[in-house]
Amino acid sequence: MSFFKVNNRCNGCLACVQNCPANALAYEDQGKKRILKHNMALCARCGNCWRICPQEAVEFQYLLKGAWDDVAIMELVSCAVCGEPLYTMDFSETLAHKLKKGVEPLCPKHRKELPLNTWKRLSGVAVQKNEVEL
Question: Whole domain around residue 126: which residue ranges?
Answer without folding.
Answer: 76-133
